[in-house]
Recover the amino acids of this structure.
């Protein structure tokens, strides 16, 4: 009886691990398992140097609506579309700045710069937030996403949170 219950427990644990890994691979870096690797094309796309630049630490969160809409625009999405809700919180001069937004996106399509994927949506959102913080200093400031670290993916694969660092040159 002990052997039978031991085998059942091992099978259940294996099933849980495999089941949890599949959704997370959508946002992980493929075979490397590094979720930040999908964001690599968006990091350091506009190097600013260190003179006169300010680093802003922040937390970026993305949550995907779990009620999927079957893709009715096959040219845009390969499988499903979903609502993506996102939020960022920056700390600047000991003040917290929190912003939120949402859009419909292709599920799992981070993309590359200029592809119109989730990465482009998030980069436009970050720029919008930074404009609000720095508009009084210089409306033509430059900025760069320099780090995406400490990523966390929810058990169901429907949310992603990470620490980011943005460099801004007002």
């Amino acid at each position: 009886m002990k052997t039978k219950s031991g085998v059942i427990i091992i099978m259940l644990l294996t099933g849980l691990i495999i089941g949890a890994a599949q959704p997370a691979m959508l946002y992980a870096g493929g075979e490397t398992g590094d979720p930040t690797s999908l964001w690599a094309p968006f990091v350091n796309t506009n190097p600013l140097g260190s003179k006169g630049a300010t680093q802003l630490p922040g937390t970026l969160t993305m949550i995907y609506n779990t009620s999927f809409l079957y893709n009715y625009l096959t040219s845009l999405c390969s499988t499903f579309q979903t609502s993506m809700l996102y939020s960022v919180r920056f700390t600047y001069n000991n003040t917290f700045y929190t912003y939120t937004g949402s859009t419909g996106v292709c599920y799992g399509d981070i993309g590359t710069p200029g592809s119109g994927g989730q990465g482009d949506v998030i980069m436009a959102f970050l720029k919008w937030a930074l404009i609000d913080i720095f508009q009084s200093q210089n409306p033509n400031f430059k900025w760069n996403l320099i780090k995406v670290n400490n990523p966390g993916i929810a058990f169901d694969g429907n949310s992603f949170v990470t620490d980011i660092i943005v460099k801004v040159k007002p």
Q: What stands out?
A: The first strand starts at residue 54 and ends at 64. Strands lie at 54-64, 69-70, 80-92, 95-106, 142-153, 159-169. The radius of gyration is 19 Å. Residues 2-25 form the longest helix (24 residues).
